[in-house]
Amino acid sequence: MAELKLSNVEKAYGEVKVLRDINLDIKSGELIVFVGPSGCGKSTLLRMVAGLERITGGDFTIDGVRMNDVPPSERGIAMVFQSYALYPHMTVRENMSFALKLAKKPQSEINAAVERAARILQLTPYLERLPKALSGGQRQRVAIGRAIVRDPKVYLFDEPLSNLDAALRVATRIEVAQLKEAMPNSTMIYVTHDQVEAMTLATRIVVLAGGGVAQVGTPLELYERPENEFVAQFIGSPSMNLLPGEIVETGAQTRIKLDNGGEALASIPTKASDKGLKVNLGVRPEDLVPTEGLGLFSGEVEFTEALGEVTLLYFKKVGESAGMVAKFPGIHRDLRHKAVTLTADPSKIHLFSNGRSLLYR
Amino acid sequence: MHPAFQAILTIVIGVGGCIGYFYFSNLFLDKVLFPARGENAGRNINRANMIRPWLFLLPAMIALGLYLTYPVFATLKLSLFDKSGENFVGLGNYAQMMTEAKFWEAMRSNALWLVVVPALSTAFGLLAAQLTDRIWWGNIAKSLIFMPMAISFVGASVIWKLIYDTRPTGQAQIGLLNHIWMQFDGGWGSVLLLRVLPAVLLAGFAALMGWLAWLLIRALMADRAGGFWLRIGRLAGAAISALIGLVAVIWAFGAATANLPYGAPQQWLTIPFWNNFFLMAVLIWIQTGFAMVILSAALRGVPEDTIEAAILDGANAFQIFFKIKVPQIMGTIVVVWTTITIVVLKVFDIVRAMTNGQWGTQVLANYMYDKLFTASDWGVGSASAMVIMLLVTPILVWNVYNARKEMR
């Protein structure tokens, strides 16, 4: 049960600012996921919240108390590391009780906390083992258990699943989700570069890019109403197609004439003054449908990937533009080397001017 | 011929001989014995590769066999024969040795060396490794601490002999220790530094030992379920700690009440009992650098995130060092400790060069040397060599076992 607030938080190494103007309000009971490309500073931000990295500017508060200079152990946080960071010379029980022992809690209380956590995580049979005698998934659970026994206000996860193999990752992801459900009042911050983890776990996602926050929102908000081209292309796989064009008709709906000769209608209201505005039209591969008439794109399918439930169609590049990708339900291997014209429902069209969505003007 | 020229010639012949041996023996194997051509080319290559390791091992095996394995058995045989090595006397040499006071003196000093030198060298090395880790001039400090390793034991002994040097009263003291000693005049500064400080340190150490003993006793009382050997171990640990604590209390009392001969230059190396420690200082000075380098590398190998996890768990700097870092490098500490222990058991040069075993500083290796080359008693000399080997072997086995475990 804790509310976190970051106001104008920044991180500088000497002259180089790696993070700036980070403003976040995290409410009690939320599971916030930080996503972003490698080197965007998401782990650094998490480590600043943990107190492992110094905050060089701005304020960070938990429940209204300024935490910038509070030592990590007094912030009421617990962290699960990517590499688990278990103490190799201690048994599972000692690993989990280390923090409580340092806090000089009575032995009976320590035992109760450890056994409770072990029961939740199904670690009871392994309590007297050393970490090296455990599998990757079990080690990860010990790391989570070490966080649980401290009963922290805030849980921090730093890419906790990235060292696990694919099948185990899915299973552990579900365990984390169930853990969150079992502790509805605890606040969690979760760093990942895996979109699926972000979309499935988060109550809200924070997309970080270039040292700043690109967008904060629920997974569906980010998917359906991306604020800018970066978020639009970062969320969703394969990423959103962008096609340059120009607004030709304004009003409750907007008509766009594309540079490739195609045309599209978007259910985004525009002002009369927007006429002639250069825009990038964004459309997700899964929203594209074939058409007989004039669509927003037509070209030759260069390559197909049949994934079973869907087929990805990669179109031949035209000039400088990035390659188009479409995702059709079912299997369509026969479309290779065929010419296809694509269109999309007006409600599925996104418009960006100078990289920013027209929805958020 | 000039000795330097001789040395260069030896190096050229030795290194050239090695290169020549490896080159020509491999050539012979590949071209003459199993040539890689003809109808058996494939089989010949395989055979040549099975023999090749032995070509490389052969010189080392011959040298070790000739200079290590054979002497062990020859020494064992000699230790069972008399002075001249002609008449069989059974265990007579060993029996004679047991009756000699000088032998027991050597055993006692060796035991003292064995406890003090590895412990202090490892402790100082660990301290230096940790303290030099995060400072910008750490590498300079490390180089300086490591430098004594490059000095031979005899060279180090000469340096320290100068430090302990004594001149008659009235003359300028060229020994560093006597120079410092002469600064003390019995005033309040002397009392503070030479009585109060050591007494407080010793009393503190005694308190620490007492606390340790109490902890062990408490654990013994609380944990009734503990195994038999665990309980015995705890009891023994408590008894030893209490005993060491008691000695420390007596020493603290002695330090506080000692009547110190202020103003008179001291012949440090002739002060009974304490001169052992003055000799040990030399070896500690040398071995600290070794311990530091190995332990420094081990400390850097401790995963950073376990330290960060400990910070988040609320550990302070001391707890991180003693509960997270040290346990993780315990294997390396044991290897360093046992390696120094083996050096200590063989210590000879320092004692030989500084006191030659006089004034109660005899050690086993120097005792052996005296018997062998001064008294020309091959029997007792060999017997004492066997004793040293018997003492070293278990530590050596443990050392190799731990080192191999570390490498895995």
UniProtKB/TrEMBL annotation, chain A:
One of its GO terms (molecular function) is ABC-type maltose transporter activity. Belongs to the ABC transporter superfamily. Residues 4-235 form the ABC transporter domain. InterPro entries: AAA+_ATPase, ABC_transporter-like_ATP-bd, ABC_transporter-like_CS, ABC_transpr_MalK-like, ABC_transpr_MalK/UgpC-like, Mo/tungstate-bd_C_term_dom, NA-bd_OB-fold, OB_MalK-like. Pfam families: ABC_tran (PF00005), OB_MalK (PF17912). This is Sugar ABC transporter ATP-binding protein. Keywords: ATP-binding, Cell inner membrane, Cell membrane, Membrane, Nucleotide-binding, Transport. The gene is aglK. GO terms for cellular component: ATP-binding cassette (ABC) transporter complex, substrate-binding subunit-containing; maltose transport complex. It comes from the Bacteria.
UniProtKB/TrEMBL annotation, chain B:
GO terms for biological process: transmembrane transport. The chain crosses the membrane at residues 6-29, 50-70, 111-132, 144-163, 192-216, 228-253, 273-295, 329-348, 378-401. It is a multi-pass membrane protein. It comes from the Bacteria. The keyword Transmembrane applies. Its main location: membrane. InterPro entries: MetI-like, MetI-like_sf, UgpAE/MalFG_permease. Keywords: Cell membrane, Membrane, Transmembrane, Transmembrane helix, Transport. PROSITE patterns: ABC_TM1 (PS50928). It is found in: Cell membrane. Residues 196-399 form the ABC transmembrane type-1 domain. CDD domains: TM_PBP2. One of its GO terms (cellular component) is plasma membrane. Belongs to the binding-protein-dependent transport system permease family. This is Alpha-glucoside ABC transporter permease. It comes from Gemmobacter aquaticus. The lineage of its organism: Bacteria, Pseudomonadati, Pseudomonadota, Alphaproteobacteria, Rhodobacterales.
